[in-house]
Amino acid sequence: MTPVQRTEQAATWTAMVSRAYDHTRPAVRFGDLTWTGRELLDRAAGAADWLDVLGPEPGVPVPALVATSADALALVVGGAGSGHPLAPLGVRMTAHEIAAVVKQMPAQVVVAQPEFNDLAGQVARLSGRRVALVPELSSATRTLVARPDELAAVLHTSGTTGLPKPVPMTQRRLAARARVNGHLCGLDPDSFYGGSAPFHHIAGLGNIAVALAAGALITGLPRFTVEGWTLLRELGTTHTSMVPAMLETLLAAGEARHETLRTLQYGGAPVRPGTLRRTYEAMPGVRMLNMFGQTEGSPISVLTPEDHREAVAGRTELLRSVGRPAPGVEVRVADAGPDGIGEIHARAGHFFRTDAEGWLHSGDLGRITEDGYLYLLGRRTDMIIRGGENVHPLEVETVLAAHPGVADAAVAGVPDERLGQTVVAFVVPADPDAPPPPAALRSHMRARLSGFKVPVRWWFVDDLPRNANGKVVRRRLREPYEPYEPNEG
Fold it and tell me: What confidence tier does 485 reach under pLDDT thresholds 50, 70, 90?
């Protein structure tokens, strides 16, 4: 290997992980299973060998139905270091939703953990692919290597049409993100990270990738529950991430205490002042961070632990902001009007999708105050952001309009204290005298869409507000004072 090649390899996420776990201390802990750092790397090498046997073309992302687990970590590390980058997909989505994404990918195989065998089979039939179930991964002594511009992994995020779009995470940029996020969160080899975000999400694999680069001990939960949080507390985790709605659930249950937690990272919605005060009462020494970003690039800005302490001391308006630019990030408000509001653009070395000049177009409208704090004011598009998940109205409306009892429909995002926004439907019934029961509409939707996309309230109207071109004017969709069957989905 030439000196240039050695320098290039050192600038990769794979090299960071390989250096961080060249030891015999615990590195991965799930239930009764514990791997040392060396065992993690050896299992990752075994995963790389298995991916080789599957035969995907070098550099082609491999769609995977996996949940947070030791094997999933080994697959990601092994895939990144062998030219077979993993592309985890949401196992809570329907087979039709997953197949639509898989069809856009060139790989002819879908990797799946055994517990997702049935789902994988449905996806394979719908997409014309074959399934490869993850075996018990053996150890190998293979050295994992990668070049800076090779793919480390691929995550998907929803685009303007509602079909999730791939976000390629190159080795160089993922390494840069790991350095920025690791510094902000205070992650190091003495840290113990445990989260509950879905593995395919930037808050899932995205945060785990940062912890891996820092050499932290890692665990995780398949989904958030109060019981799961109790387990993380008993294990002695030091770092985690969540959305404010989860925090409020813990507070309501009287289970928010966590004696060993050092850093709590959140996003997707602002935290309320009362919630923050109660969090500090439950965990007096915890560092709170709100990181604003998206799958295409994160963090853009950060509300620091010091900002949160100032908010508790009286500057509660800071909690409505998403902080100031993260280290190394340049932020601008593009095409700002007289009120200073425009689309937020950002530029940094750890963003994955940018224009020719390096700018990430966030799609968020916002303004920056004189003291540098960024305040978001909504989306340029009609996207609804519910608890950190993107919901596209057109996708929901298309499914809703397919119900035989619906003549026309539109959905809108309405403010929600816990989730940031929630989804509400406005339905023109096919028979005004006998509108379909909301429970029936919910069942129809849930069979075809993920739960977070299903409206929580249903309003029956005579018609929808449309402009001269026939397009729905969403800003004129307003809920009446009293909801129609407010407690039904």
Answer: very low
> 413 or 7: whose pLDDT is higher?
413
Instruction: State whether the Cα torsion 25-30-33-39 is positive or negative.
Output: negative
d(CA 315, CA 335): 29
Domains of the chain: total:
2
CATH number, domain with residue 373: 3.40.50.12780
Angle between helical axes of 13-20 and 70-80 (0-180°, round to 10): 130
pLDDT at position 190 is: 98
488 domain residue, yes or no = no
Cα–Cα dist 350/84, whole Å? 21
**Are the beta carbons of 87 and 64 closer than 8 angstroms?**
yes
pLDDT tens, position by position, 102-138: 999 999 999 999 999 999 999 999 999 999 999 999 9
- Full DSSP string of 366-414: EEE-TTS-EEEEEESS--EEETTEEE-HHHHHHHHHTSTTEEEEEEEEE
Do residues 376 and 342 lie in contact, with contact meaning Cβ atoms separated by under 8 Å? no
Average pLDDT score, the chain: 91
Domain identity same for 269 and 246? yes
Please state, as a whole number, how many other Cβ atoms lie within 10 Å of the Cβ of residue 124: 19
Kindly state whether residues 260 and 409 are assigned to the same domain.
Answer: no
Q: Which residues pair with 35 in a beta bridge?
A: 28
Instruction: Label residues 418-430 b or e (16+ Cβ within 10 Å = b).
Output: bbbbbbbbbbbbe
- The pLDDT score that the predictor gives to residue 117 is 97
Residues 372 and 393 in one domain: no
DSSP annotation of 351 reads B
The sign one gets for the Cα dihedral 89, 90, 95, 100 is negative
What one-character-per-residue DSSP string does 271-326 give?
Answer: PPHHHHHHHHHHSTTPEEEEEEEETTEEEEEEE-HHHHHHHHHT-GGGGGS--EEP
14: nearest Cα among 215, 149, 182, 213: 213
Residue span of the structural domain in which 18 resides: 3-379
Q: 16: which residues sit within 8 A by CB, 6+ positions away?
A: 175, 178, 212, 213
334 and 422 in a single domain? The answer is: no
What are the tens digits of pLDDT across the range 56-79? 899 999 999 999 999 999 999 999
Chain centroid to Cα 98, Å, comes to 16
- What phi, psi does 100 have (nearest 5°)? -60, -35
Tokens of 15: 């090299």
Q: What is the predicted pLDDT for the residue at 354?
A: 96
Give how far Cα 286 sits from Cα of 246, 337, 481, Å.
16, 39, 40
